[in-house]
Specification:
With 301 residues, this protein is an alpha+beta fold. Helix content is 18%, strand content 34%. Bound molecules: fe (ii) ion (FE2). This is 2,3-dihydroxybiphenyl 1,2-dioxygenase.
Length: 301
């Protein structure tokens, strides 16, 4: 069993911080939080001081996928497991951890090149949360959502998440020949991560981040709001076959997507078995209008 309880935070660097502000606050209804970099954009979804952290820089890339554990003992256990696998682990300083709004953080790189952080003791903000559409984000015991991570070292990356970090297999889908995208969970959310074969491990290092809200109306309102502001819809509304999410995908500034959905399945591990889906959606999710995702464009093109 894994020590990881959920996706805790995502830190991203971007060249387009002003466009991100419009995208996240006006388009997707995130609440503005606070954080250490005065030029950063800190986005609140719940009582955490921030969940999605954008900092300005000269490229668009993921800085850290932050996974949460219960406490210092669980963090020590994860550190031991990762070190035993031959992966070097760095303990962040108190100042660096404070910048992530966590008590203690360790960092390492997964076999796909993704910068990973594991933390405990997230800092809370008890002020009322005012989201853009009065929607509630579905977080709590299910974490902030899920990430889809691209990797050129697919088998090794899957093994690392399953066997070193202890993520549970939550099904797969063939994407050409015998190659399968693999979905993985750590809580009742169907998947907190999916691992996807990709031609490179460079920027941005993300395929998408999924966030879930409490009503279909909020999903529809967000879809209208991002369209009105000129953001590119990567996939139309649809319902997924594995996590049952009704969602759309919109291109974030920086070449990766935000999936925005509702009605996600709650997995009951008592009865669950890992299944292979043969279609990713029952209806909708038309990707024909999508601009190429940067994670799948070979370097130099
Ligand atoms: Fe997704």
């Amino acid at each position: 069993m894994t020590h990881i309880r959920g996706l805790g935070y995502l830190r991203v660097q971007t060249r387009h911080i002003d466009r991100w502000r419009e995208f996240a606050l006006d388009g997707l209804g995130f609440a503005e939080g606070s954080g250490p970099d005065p030029d950063g954009l800190y986005l609140r979804m719940d009582e955490r001081r921030s969940r999605l952290q954008l900092v300005p820089g000269d490229t668009d890339k993921v800085l850290a996928v932050g996974w949460e554990v219960r406490d210092q003992y669980a963090l020590a256990a994860v550190r031991e497991d990762v070190e035993k696998s031959g992966t070097a682990v760095t303990a962040l300083t108190a100042k660096e951890s404070a910048a992530r709004d966590a008590e203690e953080v360790i960092a390492f790189t997964d076999p796909g090149g993704t910068p990973v952080e594991v933390f405990f003791g997230p800092v809370l903000d008890h002020s009322p949360l005012r989201t853009g559409f009065a929607q509630k984000f579905v977080t709590g015991a299910m974490g902030m959502g899920h990430v889809v991570l691209p990797t050129p070292n697919f088998a090794e990356t899957v093994t690392f998440y399953n066997e070193v970090l202890g993520f549970l297999p939550r099904g797969a889908m063939k994407v050409g020949g015998p190659v399968r995208i693999r979905f993985m969970g750590v809580n009742q959310r169907h998947h907190s991560a999916a691992i996807c074969p990709a031609p490179h491990d460079g920027a941005p290092g993300l395929v998408h981040l999924m966030v879930e809200v409490d009503t279909l109306d909020a999903v529809g309102i967000a879809l209208d709001a991002v369209k009105e502001r000129g953001f590119s819809i990567s996939s139309t509304l649809g319902r997924h076959t594995n996590d049952k999410m009704v969602s759309f995908y919109v291109r974030a500034p920086g070449g990766w997507d935000i999936e925005y959905g509702c009605e996600g399945l709650l997995v009951d591990e008592t009865y669950y078995t890992a299944e292979e889906i043969t279609k990713d959606s029952y209806w909708g999710h038309d990707w024909s209008g999508s601009e190429p995702l940067a994670a799948f464009v070979p370097p130099g093109k």
